[in-house]
Amino acid sequence: MPHPSAPAAGLSSDQIEHYRTHGFVIVPKLLRPEEVERYRARAAQIARGDHPEQAASRIMRDIRFAKGLLPVPADPEHALWKIMNPDRFDPCLAECLRLPRLLDAVASLIGGDLLAFLLQFIYKPPGVAEAIHPFHQDGVFFRFEPHDAIVGAWLALDPVDADNGTLCVVPGSHRLPVTDHRQVPGVNKDSLAASSVEGDAEVLAKAFYVEIPPGDGVLFHPHLYHRTGGNRTQRHRRVITIHFAAATCRPTAEIIREFGFTSVRGRTYEGCLQPLASPDIGFRL
């Protein structure tokens, strides 16, 4: 599937059209090489214990290591599932919420008043082919609307491909409503799967595997069916994920506290989503 290239600031009209039509768009060079190295290095330090004691619950092992099904590697970073909302405790990784090129691109899609939430550094442990996240829609977690005013960002810190667990998307599926999702055995906690989608031949025939170098990223709609496979290689597969909502989005039910919205551009609005005044250093829903 061809993808238009990105201008220096914001998205081109072709990129915006690609996003509207397919539910996602690949955006090159969202991170500079020095930023890729900076965030990789800092995340590795955190994985190896350089973090406040109260933040330990935010450094999460893959379920196979957490349950003792596999021996923990000598390098603890190779056992990680994710670092959850590191902006709560680490100024370096908190920079990711305000990357100018990323904010320009997101603003092209949902406007210039932006809230960021759910910053995660997500790993695929080398050699763990079973570490999959089945097809799902992120919108199942989002108790605010409209969902068309929400964008997910997936930024590669390593070369990503089908062998090491890249992002796989189903173009056009963003037009569907949020469907039924369930927890499935052997998958990390709260990594829900869309019912009757994983393994469906028609879905797989339409699926597109993202292959991009470090620093490139994908912007995607919260209704887009997407999955990640396991890592069949001995290479790293590290990515940054962040979600953004237009500041005019309104709650439809109680918001999951862990989201902890941060105003990153523009202004907020009365009666709409608001930044969390005192986000928790430790993880809790």
Describe this structure in words.
The structure is a single chain. The chain is of the alpha+beta class and 285 residues long. It has a single domain, classed as Sandwich (Jelly Rolls), CATH 2.60.120. The strands form four sheets. Strands 1, 2, 3, 4, 7, 12, 14 and 16 form an eight-stranded antiparallel β-sheet that branches. Strands 5-13-8-11 form a four-stranded antiparallel β-sheet, with no helix packed on it. The mean pLDDT is 94.
From the N-terminal CA to the C-terminal CA, the straight-line distance is: 38 Å
Give the helix tally. 6
Oligomer: single chain
Unreliable spans? none
As for the CATH topology, it is Jelly Rolls
- Over the alpha carbons, how many angstroms does the gyration radius reach? 18 Å
Number of DSSP strands? 16
Question: Which percent range fits the helix content?
Answer: 10-25%
CATH class: Mainly Beta
**Which of globular, elongated, flat, extended, rod-shaped describes the shape?**
globular
Number of domains: 1
Structural class: alpha+beta
How large a portion of the residues is in β-strands, by DSSP E?
Answer: 15-25%
